[in-house]
Amino acid sequence: MADNDRTLYDTYIDYDHVDLDITSVADHVAMQQIAGENFEMEKRTLAEILSDRTFKVPEYQRLFSWKKKHHRQLWSDLEQFVEADLIDDSDISDVFFSSMYFAVDRDSNTHEVIDGQQRLTSINILLLSILEELRALDTESIQQETINQLREGSIKQIESLLYRFENPLKGDVPRLSLNKHDDDDDADLGFFEALMLGPEARLEYLCSDERESVDGRRGDSTRISDLVEEFRISDQVIEKRDPDTSSFSNFTPIYDSNWRLLNAYNFYKNRIKEVVDAADDTDSKALALINLSHYIQNSYHVGEFIIRNAAPDFRMQIFEILNDRGLELNKIDRIRAAVVNAFFDADDRQEYVNKWEDIVVAFATDDNQIDDYLSVYLSIVEPEIETVGEASAELTNAFATRNLESDVRPRLRHLDDARDFLDHAHDLVQCYKDITNSALELTDLALEEAHEKCQEVLVRLNDQRMNQWRPFILALYHHTVTDSNASGEQLYDVLDTVEKLNFRRLLVGEDPNIFQEVFIETVHRFSLSPEMEDHENVYDDSCRHLIDEMRSSNPSMFSDRFVDIVIQAQAWNPQSAKLLFGKIANEHFREDGMYVERRLNMGSIHLEHVLPQSLIHNADDPIWLTEFFQLNDDEVEIAGAIQTYIELYRRDDDELSEDERQRRDNIEEFIIQRFVNDLGNFLLLRDSDNIKASNRPLAEKMPQYFDTGEDFRSIHPNRYFTETEGVIDRRKLEDLLEQSRAIQREERDEIDPTLVDYFNSLWTYEALQDRRVGLLEDTLDIVEFEQLDDEFGLASDRDGVRERIRMQTEREFEKRLSLRSL
User: Residue 302: what are its φ and ψ, rounded to 5°?
Assistant: First the structure.
C-alpha cells in the first residue's frame, strides 16, 4: 500500500461535515454520489409515464415473456371495471401497477427500461387493441356529437402515447422499442414495430425481401399465410397493397417471444371485442372504449424510479439487485444479462454480444433449447461436470463474473476467458443443430465423405429419445469438421459404435441413464473439448474405451447373457424395432451395392404388424385368431382361452360382468404382448407403402405389400414374405396379385377362395417362431462389435448360433402357449 493511500483503516469518512482532529475525508469526496444524487422516485399514472417519452429495452434484458396467465391477471381488474355499476359498486378502485425503473441520460428523453418491460409492452398492446376498435367504429352510426368528439380526441390521445414522429421518410414509429429479437434495429421494420403500426405495416413486414424462407420442417418455422391470419390482416388490406401472394405459401422463422407478442395481441383483441359486442349501439361501444382507455391511463398508478446519468455498470447493478430480490427472471435471462455486463466496457463488446445473440437466434429464442445446448456445451468444456443435468444446474455459475459457491469456474470473470468461452460456444452451435436435427438432410452435415451413413445414424439416435450421447458426438463432430486430418468415415465408425451400444441397451431393457456419465467422461479423457489439444487416436481409442466401460458396468449387454435376454424378449417396443429393421435393411442395401437407389429414409418408414393390433376384424369370422393359433386343430394349450376371448368379444360390453370384462381384457393384453408385439410379427414398409387395411386378413394385405414393385421385396427383414427367399409359393403369389389387379380394373369380383385360404393360413404362431429365428440372427449381426473378436460366434459357427436361437425360441414359445402364461 502506498504511503499516501487513504483507507478505511486510517481515515474517517465524514458524513456530518464537522471539524475533527483526526485524518478524515468528506463522504462526497470518498465516493461517487450516484444513488443519492441521481435517483428520483415519483408516483405517476400510466398516462404520465407514457406521455412524450421514448422507451428502449436494453440488450441485457429478457425478451417478452408474459404468457396467457399474466394477461388474464392484468385483465381481471379491467373486467371488474367493465362489469361494474359505476354509482353503487364500491369495490371498484384505482390500481397500483407496481414499480418501474428507468435510466435516462443527460439531454435525452429516451428511457432505458431496467424493470417493467413486460407490463409496459402489454399496456401498449392493450391500448393498441382499444385504438383499433375506436378507429373501426362506424362514425355515421354515432348519434351524439359529443361522443363522436370524445372518440376523435381519444384516438389522438392514444396515438400520442403509442407513437412519435421519426422523420418525413419514416413517419410515425412506436415510442417503445424492444429487445433485438422482438424489434430488430437492423431491419427496416421489426416484428414489434410492425405489430404496433397496424395491418399494412404487418403485411409489409411479412412480404419484405428481408423475410427469410426456411424449410417447413424446422421447429421455428411458420407458413406466412398463417401469420397473415394471426396478424389479423384483412382481405381489403391485401387487395389495397397488392403484394406478391405467392410468398404466402413460404415458411419463415418466428421466435418464441414473437409468438408471445402475437398471443398477447390476440388475447387483448378478443377481450376488447367482447366489450364492444356487449354494447347495444355504436354510441355505447364508443363510450365503453373511451372509458376503458381513460381508466387504464388515469387510474393505474406506478411507482416510478428514474436513474439519471448513471454509468452502464450502475444500471446493471440495479438490474441485478431487482433480480436478486425475487423478480421473475429465468436462467437464460440471467445469462444474457451476465454476458452483456461482462463486456460493458470492452472494445469488442458488440462483437461478443452479437455472438451471444446468434446463439439465441439459432434456437429461435426458445429458452429450453438454449438451456439444452449450453448444458451440453458446458459438459464438454468444464472438467468438473459429470452429467448434462449437472451442467444445466451450473450454467449461471459458469456464466458469471465472480466466484460463487461452486467448483465450476466462472468463465466471465476475466475478459480473455470470457472471449474464449463465448467463441467456442458460438462455434459449436451449428454442429449441435446438425447432430440434433430430427429432419437432418444429407447436405446438412459439414463432412466431405460418409454423409449418408452419418446422417442415417444421427436420425435414428434422435428418434430413440436418448440424448446422453450428445456431448461426446458434438465434440467429436466439431473435431472432425475442423481437423483436416480427420474423416467422415472415422466419425461414422464412432456413431456406429454409439448406436450399437444404444440398441443393446434397448434390447436388454436398460434405462438410458446408464450412459449419463460415460460419454462426458470420454470427452474429458480424450481431450475433445475445443479448449484442449486433440488426442491422436481419438476415434479408435474412444470406441474401445466406450465398449470396455459398458462391458464392465453392464455385462448383460454383451456375449451370451445378451443373446439369452434378446431371445427371451417379449413385448418389443415398435419404435425400437422400426429403427433396428431400418438399420438392418440399409446395411444390406449397402452390402448389395443398392444403397443409393434403395436406402430407406429413417424419417419416413412404417412398422407393420402382420398379426394386427386389432385382433378381430369380423366377429362372425375371426380369421386371424383362428388361423394364427390353429384353433380348428385344437392342439394349442391356450386354445380354450382364445375361444373364450372370441365369445366375450362378440357380446356387448353392458352384457358382461366385471369379471368377464377383466378376463377378456387380460387375454387381449396377453396376445398383444406375447405375439402381436413380438419381433417376428413386424414388417417394415416405406411410408408410400403404408397400407390402408392393416387389420384385414392376410390375403387382402399381401397385394398391397407387393403393389410397390421391388420395394417390399428388397427390404431385408421382409424376406420371409417373399417368393424368392421366403415361404411364399411363387405361382400362388403371382395369381393373387393378378386377380387383385383384375378386381381393381373391375374385371372380376373376388379372389379365388383357394388362394384366400392359402394366404390366410400362412401366418401362424409356428410361422412367427420360424421367422423370428432369422430376425434374431440379423439382430446379432447388426449390433456386433468388430473390436470384440467373434463375440457371438457368428464368424466361427453361424449354424451353431442359429440352432441355439432356434432351440431357445422353441422353449420360449412353449411357455407362451401354455396355460401357465395366462
Answer: -130, 140
DSSP string for 489-522: HHHHHHHHHHHHHHHHHHHHT--GGGGTTHHHHH
Tell me the percentage of the chain whose pLDDT exceeds 90.
Answer: 62
Give the separation between CA 116 and CA 100, rounded to whole angstroms: 5
pLDDT of residue 644: 93
Q: Which of 187-201, 356-370, 769-783 reaches the highest mean pLDDT? A: 769-783
Q: What is the DSSP letter of 211?
A: P
Q: What's the one-letter identity of residue 198? A: G
Residues 6 or more apart from 156 whose CB is under 8 A from it? none
- Give CA 170 to chain center in angstroms: 38
Label residues 746-776 b or e (16+ Cβ within 10 Å = b).
eeeeebeeebbebbbbbbbbebbbebbbbbb
- Residue 758 to residue 496: CA distance in whole angstroms: 42
Cell numbers standing for residue 112: 432505458
For residues 452 and 470, give the distance between their C-alpha atoms in angstroms, rounded to a whole number: 19
Q: Say if strands 39-45 and 300-308 run parallel, antiparallel, or are unpaired.
A: antiparallel
Interatomic CA distance for residues 766 and 769, integer angstroms: 5
Confidence of residue 188 (pLDDT cuts 50, 70, 90): confident
3-state secondary structure of 222: strand
Vertex 43: Cα angle to 37 and 49 (nearest 5):
95
Question: Of 564, 457, 552, which is closest to residue 507 (Cα–Cα)?
Answer: 564
Which of 182, 254, 257 is closest to 221 using CA atoms? 254
Cα–Cα distance for residue pair 345/341, rounded to 1 Å: 9
Beta bridge partners of 113: 102
Query: What single letter denotes the amino acid at residue 120?
Result: L
Pairing of strands 54-56, 605-609: unpaired
Rounded to 5 degrees, what angle do the CA atoms 222, 437, 495 make? Answer: 175
Written as nine digits, the cell of 808 is: 431357445
Instruction: Compute the distance between CA of residue 742 and CA of residue 619 in angstroms, rounded to an integer.
Output: 29
How far, in Å, CA of 785 to CA of 19, rounded? 87
Residue 233, C-alpha cell as written in the block:
390482416
Q: Distances from the Cα of 256 to the Cαs of 110, 116, 327, 365, 771, in angstroms?
A: 27, 20, 21, 6, 49
User: What angle in degrees, to the nearest 10, is found between the helix axes of 698-706 and 753-760?
Assistant: 90
Tens of pLDDT, residue by residue over 68-127, are: 999 999 999 898 888 887 776 567 788 999 899 898 877 777 999 988 999 999 999 999
pLDDT mean over 150-161:
96
Number of H helices, E strands in the chain: 36, 14
Banded model confidence at residue 692, pLDDT cuts 50, 70, 90:
low
Would you state the pLDDT for residue 596?
A: 56
Q: CB-hemisphere CA count at 13 Å for 249?
A: 1
Mean pLDDT, residues 712-737: 91
Phi, psi of 671 (to 5 degrees): -65, -45
Q: Is the dihedral of CA 288, 294, 299, 302 positive or negative?
A: positive
What CA–CA distance (Å, rounded) separates 244 from 224?
A: 12
Q: How many CB atoms lie within 10 A of CB 149?
A: 11
pTM for the whole thing? 0.78
CA 316, 317, 321, 322 dihedral sign is negative
Query: Could you tell me whether strands 110-115 and 54-56 are parallel, antiparallel, or unpaired per DSSP bridges?
Result: parallel
Quick one: how far is CA 206 from the chain centroid?
Answer: 24
Coil, strand or helix at 650: helix
Q: Which residue has the higher pLDDT, 531 or 493?
A: 493
Comparison of pLDDT for 483 and 632, the residue scoring more? 483
Tens of pLDDT, residue by residue over 639-658, are: 899 999 999 999 999 999 99
Which uninterrupted H or E stretch holds 97?
Answer: strand 95-104
DSSP code, position 675: I
Q: Can you give the pLDDT at residue 326?
A: 44
Cα(328)–Cα(67) distance, integer angstroms: 13
Is 605 in contact with 575 (CB distance < 8 Å)? no
